[in-house]
């Protein structure tokens, strides 16, 4: 039985590999020339949204490097099962825009109609300065929108106290969209911070020079009739440069460490077993039981015998009795 299961698994793996090769060969990415070394992430060394990343416990560079090195890659059609990592690559980090989508004119924004269950669908836009909010524009109030599965719950250990946020599929920063129900889904604040990191890559590219644009798509991934998305897929490709400026295809899971979510309804309960193993890198002081970002001056002063390099989920370190440094806020 075990052998049979093993053979089945190997066969499935081979079939998956063949399917991935076949999908690489097809024509869906016509219209842009893959740069040399196209499977290496690009645009990932841009300046930082440090506040969002600090909440994730990482610098932007660390986060994206960890993502590039540590994130598994799965095929686009695979069910979005959370296997302990917030972030995964899809199709080897290559977006799957059709030739028609690659030809969208500047200013294009499309939001899918809500389905019979009131769930949003893919949102795609060619973002650029013409779609972005004017400097100083305040964001509107989203409170009137109730995305599918909106079952707001409070947890003392979650930043801001609330589990869910009304998450933009395509961020306000890119399209100036406010309370558009077709652009909002029920997502954790934890996911929202990670989404902003990727929005930031697109926004930075657009802000870098007039005429810079990024084709950007966010697809909420619902399973069966569930009301809360399991994950969101983000794809981006900078226009006119073959993706040299920005290119990614990632899946971000709609999770919150410490909380188990019933995706069918949006109900939730505390569960310490739910953790994010997306890599974090820090330096712990075994004498003071404080941990730091590697760049913290205090980290450099830790005595050799007490210095511990750590890579893994932050909460595992906290559960060992370590506390984050108040200065570098790892
Ligand atoms: Zn520190």
TrEMBL record:
- Residue ranges of every copy of the Type VII secretion system protein EssD-like domain listed in the record: 110-236
- Transmembrane stretches in the record are none
What keywords are assigned to this protein? Endonuclease, Hydrolase, Nuclease
Question: SUPFAM superfamilies under this entry?
Answer: Ada DNA repair protein, N-terminal domain (N-Ada 10)
Give a yes or no for keyword Transferase in this entry.
no
The protein's superkingdom reads Bacteria
Named from the GO MF annotations, one term is: endonuclease activity
Q: Does the keyword Hydrolase apply?
A: yes
Protein name, please?
DNA/RNA non-specific endonuclease
Q: Which organism is it from?
A: Adlercreutzia faecimuris
């Amino acid at each position: 039985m075990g052998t049979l299961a093993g053979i089945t698994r190997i066969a499935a793996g081979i079939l998956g590999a063949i399917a991935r090769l076949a999908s690489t060969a097809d024509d869906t990415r016509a219209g842009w020339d893959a740069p040399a070394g196209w499977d290496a992430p690009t645009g990932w060394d841009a300046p930082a949204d440090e506040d969002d990343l600090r909440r994730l416990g990482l610098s932007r560079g660390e986060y994206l490097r960890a993502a590039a090195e540590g994130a598994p890659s799965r095929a686009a059609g695979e069910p979005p099962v959370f296997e302990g990592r917030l972030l995964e690559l899809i199709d080897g980090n290559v977006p799957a825009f059709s030739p028609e989508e690659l030809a969208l004119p500047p200013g294009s924004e499309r939001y899918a109609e809500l389905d019979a269950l009131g769930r949003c669908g893919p949102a795609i836009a060619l973002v650029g300065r013409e779609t972005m909010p004017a400097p100083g524009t305040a964001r509107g109030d989203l409170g009137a929108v109730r995305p599918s599965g909106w079952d707001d719950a409070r947890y003392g250990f979650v930043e801001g106290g609330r589990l869910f946020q009304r998450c933009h599929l395509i961020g306000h920063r890119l399209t100036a969209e406010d309370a558009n129900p077709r652009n909002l889904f029920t997502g954790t604040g934890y996911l929202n911070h990670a989404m902003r990191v990727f929005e930031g890559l697109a926004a930075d590219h657009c802000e870098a020079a007039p005429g810079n644009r990024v084709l950007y798509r966010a697809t909420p991934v619902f399973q069966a009739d569930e009301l809360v998305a399991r994950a969101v897929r983000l794809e981006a490709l900078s226009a006119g440069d073959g993706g040299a400026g920005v290119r990614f295809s990632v899946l971000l899971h709609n999770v919150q460490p410490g909380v188990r979510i019933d995706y069918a309804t949006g109900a939730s309960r505390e569960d310490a077993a739910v953790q994010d193993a997306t890599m974090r890198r820090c330096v712990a002081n075994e004498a003071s039981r404080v941990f730091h970002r590697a760049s913290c001056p205090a980290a450099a002063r830790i005595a050799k015998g007490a210095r511990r390099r750590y890579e893994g989920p932050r909460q595992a370190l906290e559960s060992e009795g370590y506390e984050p440094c108040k200065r570098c806020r790892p």
